[in-house]
Specification:
By secondary structure, the protein is an alpha+beta fold. The chain folds into two domains: 62-107, Photosynthetic reaction centre, H subunit, N-terminal domain (Photosynthetic Reaction Center, Chain H, domain 1), CATH 4.10.540; 117-256, Alpha-Beta Complex (Photosynthetic Reaction Center, Chain H, domain 2). Helix content is 17%, strand content 20%. The model has no long low-confidence stretch (mean pLDDT 86).
């Protein structure tokens, strides 16, 4: 370098300046990327849309090519369409809690809410459905010292019999049981397999029964059913999880009251 043009520049200073410039650009890049979903913001009380920002604020739409011919998805996925929910505010101020106006398990309120996930099954590295019934999974079985729970009664939080176990659904990729298929005592004339998440079940080996404390026995009949008998879609998993997850708050009126 010419001594008269760059008397105070050296390699260390150039590297430092390059790092600072890179770091500033990285901050702008990350902030643009994390604003793909949920923006622009809106006022909770009035619904007024906040500023949309510019090229330094929000990134352009990005497309992702899914494997195994599942098409292309974009982010952000949708606009901010208004959604009506079957609930009302307890008070007239922003941030006030909502209370259901109907059946929260059916309407998807609070912990019973679900996302509209893809209506296709979760797949393994080879493109095959991961979660399938044990009765149709060749080469898989329960350990000889354990029971497959077939015929065992399922009890709800109220101690009443909600149904009977008829099959297990396994995750072939993770080698574990994901769901228990059951025949509900009150089936409400719904068609299709009914599942309960295994992680919410307590297996009582001594009494040979399964206890699900998320719901009362009468609420098992409304569990969202599957369209197919040999696979479960991501959307159906979301619905089943939301039904039982919402029961921890909405199964009984006492659960919705404060602890103190």
């Amino acid at each position: 370098m010419h001594p008269d043009l760059t008397p105070h520049l050296d390699v260390a200073l150039l590297v430092f300046n390059a790092f600072v410039l890179f770091f500033v650009c990285l901050v702008f890049y990350l902030r643009r990327e994390d604003r793909r979903e949920g923006y622009p913001l809106e006022d909770e009380a009035t619904g007024r849309i906040d500023t949309f920002g510019g090229p330094l604020h929000t990134a352009e739409t990005k497309s992702f090519l899914l494997p195994f011919g599942h098409g292309i998805v974009t982010a952000p996925t949708k606009g901010r369409e208004p959604v009506d929910i079957a609930a009302r505010r307890t008070e007239r101020f922003a941030g006030a809690p909502y209370v259901p106006t109907g059946d929260p398990l059916v309407d998807g309120i609070g912990p019973a809410a679900w996302a509209n996930r893809a209506k296709r099954p979760d797949i393994d590295m080879e493109g095959h459905p991961r979660i399938v019934p044990l009765s149709g999974a060749a080469g898989y079985g329960v350990a000889p010292r354990d029971s497959d729970l077939n015929g065992w009664p399922i009890l709800g939080a109220d101690g009443a019999i909600a149904g009977t176990v008829c099959d297990l659904w396994i995750d072939k990729a993770d080698r574990l049981i994901r769901y228990i298929q059951f025949t509900a005592t009150d089936d409400r004339a719904l068609v299709g397999p009914a599942l309960v998440p295994m992680m919410m079940a307590t297996v009582d080996r001594r009494r040979r029964r399964v206890v699900i404390d998320a719901l009362n026995a009468a609420q098992f009949g409304g569990v969202p059913r599957l369209e197919a008998t040999d696979q479960i879609t991501l959307y159906e998993e979301e619905r089943v999880m939301a039904w039982f997850g919402g029961g921890y708050l909405y199964a009984n009126a006492d659960r919705q009251e404060p602890l103190l």
